[in-house]
Amino acid sequence: MLRIRALAVATALAGVVLTAAPAVSAPAPAPADEPSIAAALTVAPADPAAAVTAAPPALLRAYQRDLGLSPQAAARRLAREARAAAVQGALARTLGDRWAGAWVDGPDATLVVATTDASAARAVTAHGGRATVVRHGLAALDGAKRRLDAAGSAAAPGATPLWYVDVRTNSVVVRSTDAARTETFLRDSGVDRALVRVERAATVPRPLADLRGGDAYYIDDAARCSIGFPVTQNGQPGFVSAGHCGQPGSNATSDGGGSIGTFQGSTFPGNDYSWVAAGPDWTAQPQVNDYAGGAVTVSGSQEQPVGGSVCRSGSTTGWHCGTVQELNATVNYAEGTVYGLTRTTVCAEPGDSGGSFISGSQAQGVTSGGSGDCTSGGETFFQPVNPILSTYGLTLATG
């Protein structure tokens, strides 16, 4: 009976490629809780063919691009990882305070189980698993991290940009830019120093933010306009907007006050367009804010003909739509004449300047000016986007 059960367990484990670990000695007599550990390891193997069918093509392409895996290899990995996740959850419940975490290792996604109990590790190994015996349980490591979180909640320590529980090394890793200051922080936190491993921080994390059409930005802390369309220039992110919003060298900041970048080019009058180069903290997203809790994805910049529908996104009045009335209009503003604008029946108000005009998923242009408002109605002109891209050598962010 025992032999039949062991064979069934070994068969079930075949789909995850679990191997014996050199860190654990040869199997000893089975511990008392072997049946529960064996049951935790007995999870039906996932079907790689089903994983291929279920996985979105974009996911498989990303695995091939970023992990160097063929679609078939990616599907096998997905299947093995799905089963490993199920085994991990079952073992965590079974081992309780003896549980020290788990991870998948190597291209075959081999599941490695860490435990503080040598007999539990022998049971895992006896049933085809790979296990390693460690000093600290996961609960102790999580507790140490919570203590660091509490100590850093008042003011994040500048010398320690990152800490986390590392189950592979059975420690709480603290990355440091200044060893002395980090040690002071650890001492003041009251954390058990034996649980902590300090690593030199090669880089410092920073917030990453999205550039999105229609969102607000501020110029030299004095005026507000709206982002037209996110773009890149030789890989550098940025966005196009109206020329009358800022001059070359003007600073652009976000609605939250963070720095975006500076105006690199601006023309007004004559034309009414500009582009802002953003810092590396920003990502040029192919999106326009629809001011209804979502966004419209930009897929190109094909010009809409006269009579076609068009919508505008701006930080004052949000999302409004109308139709194209004329192309290549000349508008004589008090500040000077602007050529090549498109006239629309869409309303706009101050602060919407620079914002996105889009038809379906096709970028049309950036808001220039107009008359009326969004209460009584009016007309608005936009500067077509394609001449802006051509003038500054920009690439429209598309998705």
TrEMBL record:
This is S1 family peptidase. Keywords: Disulfide bond, Hydrolase, Protease, Serine protease, Signal, Zymogen. One of its GO terms (cellular component) is extracellular region. It comes from Streptomyces sp. Y1. GO terms for molecular function: serine-type endopeptidase activity. The keyword Signal applies. Belongs to the peptidase S1 family. It holds the Pfam family Pro_Al_protease. Gene3D superfamilies: 3.30.300.50, Trypsin-like serine proteases (2.40.10.10). GO terms for biological process: proteolysis. CDD domains: alphaLP-like. InterPro entries: Alpha-lytic_protease_prodomain, Pept_S1_alpha_lytic, Pept_S1A_streptogrisin, Peptidase_S1_PA, Peptidase_S1_PA_chymotrypsin, Streptogrisin_prodomain, Trypsin_dom. Residues 265-388 form the Peptidase S1 domain. Disulfide bonds join 225-245, 311-321, 347-374. Residues 1-25 form the signal peptide. Residues 136-192 form the Peptidase S1A alpha-lytic prodomain domain. SUPFAM superfamilies: Alpha-lytic protease prodomain, Trypsin-like serine proteases.
